[in-house]
Structures are given as structure tokens and as C-alpha cells.
Amino acid sequence: MTFFIVTLIKIVIVFAVFMTTLAYLQWIERKVLAHIQSRTGPLRVGPHGLMQPLADVFKLLTKEDVFPPFVNRFFYLLAPFIAVCLALITISIVPFGPEIEVAGVRTYMQIGDVHVGILLVLAITAVSVYGVALAGWSSNNKYSLLGGLRSSAQMISYELPLSLAIVSPLLLANQLSFRAISDSQAGYYLGFIPRWNIFQAPFPQIFAFIIFLIAAFAETNRIPFDLPEAENELVAGFHTEYSSMKFACFFMAEYANIVNITCVATLLFLGAWHPLFPAPYSNWVAPLVFLLAALSCFAQAAQPRRKNDQYTFPLFGVVFLVLTAIFVVAALEIVPVLSTILLSIFWFLAKVGLLIFAFIWVRGTLPRFRYDQLMHFAWTFLFPVSLLNLLITGLLVALFPERI
Amino acid sequence: MPTTYAETWFPVLIQILIAIAVAGGMIGASAILGRRMRDPVKMSPYESGMTPVGNARERFSVKFYLVGMVFILFDIEAIFLYPWAVVYRQLRLFAFVEMLLFIVLVLCGFFYIWKKGVLDWSIDERRDEAREKRRAA
Amino acid sequence: MDTVLFIIFAIVAIVAGFNVVLQRHPISSALSLVGVMGSLAVLYLLLGAEFMAMAQMIVYGGAVMVLFIFVIMLLNAGAEKPSSKAWFAQIAGLPLLLAFIATLGFLIYSALPGLRAVEFGSWTMGTAEEIGKLLFTQYLLPFEVISVLILIAILGAVVLALKEID
Q1: Closest to B119 (Cα-Cα) out of C63, C154, A278
Q2: A273: left (phi over 0), alpha (psi -120 to 50) or beta
């Protein structure tokens, strides 16, 4: 019985955090893109536009829900449903930290650990093609159909290098469950080189990681692979005919998929929640980061550029100082359980955050592929390279099978 | 901590139910909230302001079908790699040679389709150019 | 819990299966088939065959059915028109179908060792590791033959579509 209650509590926490992250990812993306392009980004709603996600949700909820008469009604509604539904499942098998014991209850820092976790992710990716294909087809609009088709062909083409790139770290871990894969990356070589899969002997998976990231960009329909919604040729691609919350569904699914795929990349290649260097020293990274953030906030407050800056920046600074204090307590390991929870979540989220930042950064800098280049790249470059990487890894693991 | 097989999948089941509820709620909310103003222009397919000509359901390139077909075949190959990776450290070089044989055979097919131009999406353009040249000659 | 889930998904599988036949539009039929594949995957999962369930979803649910949908879109197949000429099928169809199902059921029933209640989750050989062990030692030859099959399928697909490409 405790198991069910604990599971429900974990689901509520993770789901609340996940949904908030999805809402704020939009704000973060707009802000980062704006600063890359020397603009200011959202600024009007709340301090620094922090209330923008809320405003967007209300706007989309109260927008007119255009239900075009020429669409195939059932599939037109089913498509966003499939997209959102599938995008929200993956987070349930992502481990955020080790096994912990709170008030006598031993539990994983994870909603549920299934033995075939990585295959479940692949299955969800495989099925989510329907959301896009159906949206394009049922809309009965030329742009939608073209966008949907392009997108589904692109998604299946890049799914192949994606699944091949996943196999090479699995050769090192020999497990399919995310928890076991994460655990296999614990520890350090020579006391300071982390045993993350991108560093792990006998063959560091750096190439697999790069292939995985490229394929992940394509799977999530992001620039430079955002052909399905190339706005200057296809309006909005497969969701041209969607409005109101149905349109928001596709957006939410896109952001959820970004979070999912970066979580998977972190788990497979970047050592999940294991810190970059050994424990007593790595504890102090979190307080240091928050302290620096606090200091920069105060520095900004000293030279306010906009009207409310002298009020908002000190406030942010105080928030960061509080976080610093919390993580100092965690770093001192006064309450061991709390330290484990906070520090592993910090390291996990830091890695995921950096990857998400890379996604936005790429969007801000790279131009779009042409469609024939895109398909050509997937099949004649990524696919053979990932196979080659797989075979080299296999050969080296076969020759040096002992875990060092 | 899950103790039985059913308990390992129970959290995922709950999550799926929540996902269905959220997705249904979002689509339902958009149908209930928001005012409706219908007019004939709004209810026509959006084609950047042009009056739509014909139907969207047209036939499209056989390339998409071929990509789907080739994808199935390589996906079957990929799915075999997962149990292979799991038992890899038990079988070592034996497993490596097995998979090498398998992959080399499949790769033969891959190079065949490559040479046949199935993977080349700009081939239509090139064919048109060749035709133009022939006509000019 | 297991039994309830089994009954739910068995019913879903059967209803979706009927839907494949009853739907007029090919896309609807194809998606019902996806439903069948999905519920079959859940049934595998209930029996403890985790790897099979996921492979079912990835290969059948993902790849094969996407190809079906591509082909339907490619051919731009519209809704099926019921033909009134098939009077024989209309009259004899249902009895013949029932007879077929009854025969099949009888054969399976008599071939099986005995009616035991299936215990859900008691079978633990369905993991990727067990399948890998068997596949790469005992069933090595069938595994290597699969690669030849895939090769033939690739050649076949290209030859069939070659006319369109050139």
C-alpha cells in the first residue's frame, strides 16, 4: 500500500514540475533567442516577462476554436490528442537520483523503473509519428499534408540513427533499464575522470552522443531540421489548420519532446545524476553557481537599465541567495537524505538544462536544411556512421570485456 | 521500490491515464471556452490568402513509400541489436562476429538502394535537367 | 488487476479488429489496426514478455503501420464503395466466418495440453536478456537467415518501385 501512495506522491510532484517547465520553456526559448539576436524578448507581462507563459495559456484558452468544415473530424481531433498523450509518458521512467530512504520508506527518485525503459522510449517515438501524419492528412489542406508527410518521413528516417546511436552505450552498460544504465556510469577513473558513457573505456561514446543529438534535433522537428513547419514555404506545416488549445497541444508536445529527449541523452551519455568530479568537492558546485547568479543579479541592480530593475534584480538576488544557503546545507551533508536528493537533482537538471540551452542556441544560429539534403544526410551519412561507431564499440568491448 | 512485475509497470499505467486526462482536457477546454464567429472565408482552407484550388488529397512521390519500406527493414535490424547489446559481455567476440555477418548482409542491401538512387531526393531535378539537355541537343 | 487489464485489452483488440473490417475509409482501418497492435503489445506485457511487447510497438505499431498509412496516402485511396454484386458474400459470409472460427477454436483447443488458468507475470523468460541468450546461441542460424530475408525484401521493394523512379 505504501508503494502506491509513494508512487502517487512522486507522480504529482514530477508532473507539476514537468508542466511548469514546459510552460516556462517557451519563455526561456524566447528570451535566449532574443538575446542571441540582440533583442530583449518578452518584457511586458510581469517582471522580465516572467508571467508571459501564464498570459499565453489564458490567451490560447480563450481564443476562438476554429473547427474547419472540410476536415476529417475524428482524426483532426485525434492528432493533437496523440501528440500530447505520448509526449507526457516518457517522464515517468526517467530517474532523477539514486535510491533514497525517507521516513523508513525506501524508494527510487523516479516514478517507475521498467526493465525495458529505453525500448519504451523508442516505442513512444515510433508511435508519435501518427500525431503528425494524421494532423497533416486530416486537415485537408495542401500545406498541412505536405508538412505532415515531410515530417513523418523525416521522423522515421532519423529514428534509425537514433536507435543505432543508443545501442553503443548499451554495449557498455548491458542493461535496458534507465536506472541500471545510470548506475553503470557511477565512479571515476584515476579518481577524477567520470565514468560517464561519453568518457567510458574502452571506447568513449562521444560520436554516439553527437549522432544522438543530431537525430534528436530532427526527431523534435527543431531547426535545422524544422522542414515540416518551414514557415516561409509551408505556413505552419502540419498544424496550419489548428487553432486555440489544439494548436497549443502541438506546441506543448514539441517542448515535452525536447525535455524527454534531453533527459534520455543525459541518462545515456552524460552520467545521469553523477557529478562531474568526486563527491566532497562536487557538492560545492551548486552553491557556487547560485552564489555567482546572486552576485550578478546584485551587480545588475547597481546599474538599472529599465525602470523596475532596481526592485526586481535585488529580489532575484535574494532568491538565489536563499538557494545558495539551501545548497550549502546540502553540501555540508547535515541531513544525508536531503543532500542526496538536492545534489542529484541539481546535477541532473544542470545537464538537462545545458542540453536544452544547446537546442535553443542551435535554433538561434543555424539555417534550415533543404529537404533533399536532410534525407540524404540521414541515410548516407548518419546511418553508416552510427553503424560504424557501433561496430568499433562492439569490437573494443569484445576485446577488453572487463570493466575497468 | 517495486517488488513484483505488476508494480514495475503500475506507475507507467498511472502516468498514461494522467496523460490521457490532460490531453483530453486540453482539447475539451478549447471546444468549450472561446467565442465562435463563423464566416465562409474563415472556414475555407488556409492558403495564404489565395482561393483554394482543387483538393488537398493528391498523390505524392513514391519516395515516401520507399523510405517507409526501407525504414521497416532497417528497423527490424535495429531491434535485434538490443538483446544483442544486453548479452554482449557474455558472448563477446562470438556475438561480435555474428552481428558483423548480419550487418554486412543488410549493408549489401543498403548500398544497393544507395546506388539505385532511392536515397537521393534531388534525383527528379537531375532527371529534369538531363531531359532539358537532351531536348536542347 | 491483471485479469481486469487482460479483459479490457482483449476486448479492445477484438473491437479494433472488427473495426478494421467494418470501416469504409482505409485510413480508419489502418488506425484500427494500430489499435490492435497496441492492445496486443499490452497483452504481451501482461504475460511478462516485455521485450516482445516493445518490439511489437516499435516494429508493427511504428514502422509497418506507418508504411501502410504512407501507401494509403500515396494511392489517395478514397472511401470504399460497397459492391452490391457480391451476393454470395452477403448471404454466406457470416455463417462461413462463424464456421471458420469454430473450427479454428476447436483445433487450438484440442491441440493444447489442457485448460490451465494463465498466471499473469509468472513467466520471467521474456526479458531482453533471455531472448538475447537464446537468439544468439541456440537460434543462431534462423537469426542469420533473417538478414538474408531482409536483403531480399530490400531488393524486392526497390525492384517494385523502380519503374516509378526511372
Answers
A1: C154
A2: alpha
Q: Which residues 20-59 of chain C have a CB within 8 Å of chain A?
A: 27-28, 31, 34, 38, 41, 50-51, 53-55, 57-58
DSSP state of A381: I
Architecture per CATH, domain B61-125, reads as Up-down Bundle (1.20)
Tell me if C153 is assigned to some domain: yes
Are B86 and C132 within 8 A, CB to CB?
yes
Strand partners, A108: A99
- Domain borders along chain A are 2-283+333-399
Q: List subunits contacting chain A, requiring 3 or more Cβ pairs under 8 Å.
A: B, C
The CATH number for C72's domain is 1.20.120.1200
pLDDT, tens digit, for every residue of A69-111?
Answer: 777 778 888 888 998 999 999 999 999 888 888 877 888 888 8
pLDDT per residue over A345-396, tens digit each?
Answer: 999 999 999 999 999 999 888 888 877 888 888 888 899 999 999 999 989 8
Total domains in the fold of chain C: 1
Question: Pick from B95, B108, B109: which is nearest to C136 by CB?
Answer: B95
- In chain C, residues with a C-beta closer than 8 Å to the C-beta of A129 are 62, 66
Stretch A33-56: mean pLDDT: 84
- Taking a C-beta distance cutoff of 8 angstroms, is the pair A197, A172 a contact? yes
Q: Based on the number of CB atoms within 10 Å of its own CB, is A90 exposed (0-12), middle (13-18) or buried (19 or more)?
A: buried
Contact list, A114 vs chain C (CB under 8 Å): 50
Q: Which of A44, C141, A175, A351 is nearest to B98 (CA)?
A: C141
